[in-house]
Structures are given as C-alpha cells and as structure tokens.
Amino acid sequence: MKNLQLKKLLPQAGVATVALAAALGLAACGGTPASTGSTGGSAPAESDGSYELVTDGALTFATSPDYPPFENLENGEYVGLDMDLGRAIAEELGLECEYTNIDFDGIVPAIVAGGQADAGLSGISITPEREEQVDFTDPYYVDNQAVATLSSNTELTEDNAAEALNSAEITIAVQSGSTGADFAAENYPNAEILPFPNFTDAFAAVASGQADAVCGNSAVVQQMLAGAYTDQHVILTSATGEEYAIAVSKDNPELLAAINDALAKLQEDGTIDELIAANMG
Amino acid sequence: MRTLPKRAAVALSLALACLASCCVWLALPPQAAEAMQVVRCTGRPNSDDDPTAIQGATQSRITLETTVDEGEGVDQLVVHVPDGTSFGTDDLNVTLLTGDDLMTRNEVAYDLSTDGQDIIFDFDAPLSQAGHLNIIIYDVYFPQEGGDMQVGATYTLADGSEHEIDGIPQITVVGITGPEALSQWLEQQEWVQAWNSNTFLHLFLDPTVLVTSFPVVLNGFFMSVGVVALAFPLGIPLALVLALMRLSKFFLWRGIATTYVNLMRGTPLFLQIYVAFFGLPLAGIQIPNFPLGVIVLMLNSGAYMCEIFRAGIQSINKGQTEAARSLGMNGFQTMLFVIFPQMFRNVIPNLTNEFITLYKDSSLLAAVGVMELVMYARTIVASTGSITPYIVAALFYLVITLPLSRITRVLEDRLRGHRRSKRHAHAPEAAGAEKEVAAR
Hints:
The structure holds two protein chains of two kinds.
Chain A: H1 9-30, E1 58-63, E2 66-67, E3 71-74, E4 77-79, H2 81-92, E5 96-101, H3 104-113, E6 119-120, H4 128-133, E7 135-136, E8 141-150, H5 161-164, E9 171-175, H6 179-187, E10 192-196, H7 199-207, E11 213-217, H8 218-226, E12 232-244, E13 247-248, H9 253-268, H10 271-280
Parallel strand pairs in A: 1-5, 1-6, 9-10, 9-11
Antiparallel strand pairs in A: 2-3, 3-4, 6-13, 7-13, 8-11, 8-12
Chain B: H1 3-27, H2 30-33, E1 38-43, E2 59-68, E3 74-80, E4 93-98, E5 104-107, E6 110-115, E7 118-127, E8 131-141, E9 147-149, E10 152-157, E11 162-164, E12 171-173, H3 178-188, H4 190-196, H5 199-204, H6 207-247, H7 251-266, H8 269-282, H9 289-315, H10 318-326, H11 331-361, H12 373-384, H13 388-425, H14 429-439
Antiparallel strand pairs in B: 1-2, 2-8, 3-7, 3-10, 4-5, 4-8, 6-7, 9-12, 10-11
Helix pairs in contact in B: 3-6, 6-7, 6-9, 6-12, 6-13, 7-9, 8-9, 9-11, 10-11, 11-13, 12-13
C-alpha cells in the first residue's frame, strides 16, 4: 500500500548493531541483573552504563493521545500505530513499555529537560528547529496531508480545491505546530490559518462554521471523518514527505542508537508495515 | 438483455477514446505532447513572526513537483537552485507519486552530482510511469536580502533531446527581520553557546529564541490586553444589574440572578469558552473569534463582580440608606448617589484583583484559536521545542499584573487607614452588615 522511504535507516543499522552489542557486552561483564527483568536478562539498565532510562527496565515514551490513528486513548488504553510501535521497540530492547501523557507542544521540551520520559513518540515530524533541541531516530512513517470541508460546502470542491483554498476569504483550521499547519502556510499563503492546540477542535471549528476547511495528516483526517465528523469530506490530498520519527535527548546517543537498531529490525521483518496496515485500515 | 447493449456502448466508447487519444498523440510532435509540467514549487515558511513568510538566511526547504507522462522516459533532470542560495544534498528526497490520487510513493534511484547551483539527477532507469515527480531539497538558505527566487529545471529524454520546464512559479523570499538577524548573531557568540550548554538555561532562557519570540508574543500581548480591556468594563454594568437583582425583594429577579451567578461561578471558564465557541455557531449565532472571546469573558467576570458588588452594597451601613430616604431621596437616587459611590471606593481593591484574574484567564481562549499571548507562545514552542517563548509570555503577564498588585496594595492600605480613623466615630462595618442580616 504505502511504499515507505526508509533509506536512511539501513546504513546506520550496522553502527547501531555494534553499539547495542557493546551495550550488551557491558551488561554481561557488569554482571548486574536487570532490576525488573521483564523478558529475561538482556535488559540493559542504567547501572550498566549503556543508556540511561527514567525508570530502570522500562522505556518511557511521552505521547499526546489526541491523534488517532497514531495515538489515542480507548477505554484508558493507549492505542494506535505509534503505541504499537513503541511496544514493539521496547520488546525488541527487552524493556517494559510505558507511556506518559504530555500535550504535544510539551513533548520536545520534556525530552530536553529529561526526567519525564526517555523518548517522544507522538507523530512528531522531523524539522530543523526541533533538531536543534533533540535527536531524531530514523523515520518510521512518511506523512501525507489532506484537506477536508463540510460535504454541504459547494464553494470548495475536489475540482477547485488547489486554487480555491488559496484565497483570503478562506479560513483553514489546523493544529498548531503540526505539519498540517506548515503545509497550509506553504501552499495556501493567502488563506487565513486558524490554529488549535487540539486537532479535534479544528474539526469542531469546521462543523460549527468557524473555519471553512481543516488541514492535517491524511490518516488522521480520514479517521476523524469516519468517526465523529461524517458530514465532512476530503477535497484534496498531497504526498508531502514529512518524516515521522522518535525524539530522543541529545544527552542519550546510546538510546538513540538502540532504538534505531530496533527500528531497523522491525522494518526488516515487516513489523512496521504490518502495524501501519493494521492501524490505517 | 439490458446489459448487453450497455456493455457494447461502453466498449465502443472505450475504443473511441483510445482512438481519439491515439490521434492526438500522433497528430502532435512527441516532445510537445509529453512535456514535463510544473505542479508546484514552494519554499517552506520559516519565520516565527509570520507563518507564511519565507525569509532569507534561515533554514528552509524547496519542494518542486512536476508531472511525468506515461512513457515519457526522462533520463536526466537538472534543477537549478537560485543564485546565492545554499543547499544540502545529503537529504534529498526524490519520489515519483503515482496512482489516481497520486498518493502512491515510488522511490526513484538516481546518481547525484552537482555543478555550482545545479543539482543533476541521472536516473538509473528513465522515468516512464505517469505521475508527479516530487523533489524536496533540504538545508536551503535563501540569500539574506530576500527577493523573488526563480528555480529552474531542464530535463533530458532517453533520446537525448533536452527540454526546459517552463513557468516554474517564483518563491518570494523576504529579507531577514531584525530580531532574526540578532538571533543568528547571538547564536555565533561564545557566551551564548556557553549559556546554552546548560540544559535549564537552554530550555527556559535561550537568548536566540528569546529575541525572535519577543516581537511575536508582543502581538498576542496586544490581543490579550484588548480582550480584557473590553470585557472588564462591559462586565461592570452587567455585574451591577445582577447585584441589584440578587438584592431584590422580588423572588424572580433574585432567582434568575442567583442561578446565573451560580452557573458561571460553579463551572470552569474553560468549559464556558468551549460551549460559546462551538455551541453558539451551531445554534445559528455566528460571531467572529475576537468579539466572542470578549463576550465570554464579560459574562464570566460579570458573575464574579456581581458578588463583589453585592458584598460591597451590603457592607454599607444601613444608616446611610435611612438617612438618604429621610432626606426625601427615592430608592433609585439612594443607590446612585449614596450607596454606589461609597461601595465603589470599598471594592476597588477587589475589582483590581478580578481584573488580574481575568487577564490571566484570557489565556484559556488559546484553546479555541484566539491568537492571544499564550497561543502565540504556544505556536513557537510547538515548532521549536523550546520553553523560552512561555517565559516571554510570563513577562508580558507580569508587566500588567505586578503594577496592578502594587496599586491594589496601596489602595487597601489607604482604605484600612480610612476605616481605622472611621472606627472611632462609627460602629465597625462588619457589625453593620451583621445588623442588616439580622434585620431581614
């Protein structure tokens, strides 16, 4: 279905493997048993000098569960592509997987500050600004953008969307700081961009007439339209090539290498493609 | 019976369509029929100040998308990056988007070389699949002075013929703003680098983010002050009316006012904002963002100020009313000329506190897209991952709240002094209020 570009992933896999092997070697030499030991003795804990974790024996991800099908809460359970991926990575590293709920714009600062979470996993796309604050793993998903409007809207249609959206009379609701906000600003500079901290509210804004259209990640838009907002339809999609990756503190390059190694394995054995297929329907 | 002719018709029309397209294909020279057309050529906006502006000397990205026709056979593509613009070639992203909705990604294999401002893609296999060729160039720094940037592109077909892609839209780049230039200068300084090596200082007080976010958050400051400067005075008459209704002897007025005040004070302002912003438009009431924000804050602070005024009115010694009435004033005149002036003087500290609270609460409007202080700060935080814009926002709150707190304290002191001197002559006011309650 989606042909993922993970060209960056492969060359670093070798390096990562070496790093992990070294980490495991240290763990073995140190002879300290893993404190919680979820899946046997391969869990490299803080004391082993490999990589530091907020909680020994557990990999804690910061996530903002308002972004289905990447992450959301269902009956108190974290579900979605990112959540499944996080669990798969933790399993690969022999660690427990834990999630902590932080607002999207607080995730990168939380990773920089440390102490809250080991990594940010929340549909975060790689941008130069964010790269100044944190390190990113290799990308695991490539983003598409979609624009949706009310089905009853006759001014904006699939046929005229590309031109009609770039008009001063149009208001486009987006999630602040998201790739959708960037996409709208880059391609529809004449339109008014109305940012909401919570992506769900951007759809509510269209439903209530505060905005003409909503722009955001294609999979998320599809999910929202299939659920709560069936009176809206997609008028435009674009393959934009924003890459989603996991954010790790710059002080923790060992963890970055370990996650990259796990990602490479999950990519190779087809797990990532399976998870994407399962979550994106 | 019915399907047969239908099928025949479909087959016939298909055949005709094929024939027609063949004719067109044959009639026109191959180069003209199968030219690559530009779909879009954009730069990534990179200004904190204006979300759609692309400025020079700041990291950006160029996206060039062109059509590829079926069987075109593009062998080589040369993209000319505007002169004076630097770019990186480590992270180039070249994708052929295919399918009806152009959402299927096909990675394109190529040999890369550069020649000055030209990026040369030698494709391993000529591109012959219909779709859009999407090229993203990262690490782009447009010239500092800005201007209209023209990206050029020429391609070579398998037969060796060379063609230019016409009509590529220019990318308008604005000159770097003062704060951005300052930020970049700061970034080079040793003391800034030393400062930023401390995680706490880097996250909360990064000088490079501080100078760029300051003018942006300033926009939000005016918005926040504007909302409160309108909502607060408008809330005062509402509060006075509510206070009088609550003190009224008529049960209906009392009931309405009490219900209203209890509802507004008993639910979070956050929920009231949500109801107003998403509920009212559904009820057919379309009000733009800014006035709607003013109205919600006015309705909310009206309820709180109602209680301040009610307590203020009740704290005025009953003897004042009696004296006024004995002078021949009616109830309305008594309120207006005797009670209100004394009451206002007493409640000014409380009102100032309410103003401070309201000013801070205006930050909740960020949740519904009103571009106030926190929203501006939040947008930069979300895109940069630095907390510094929040610290800048905090400064803008303190600019208002600290002087007001000081004023409140001075007023309270003065009032206390006034009361102390009064106490010798009159009964304490608290006793007066108690007396009034007893009289009921």
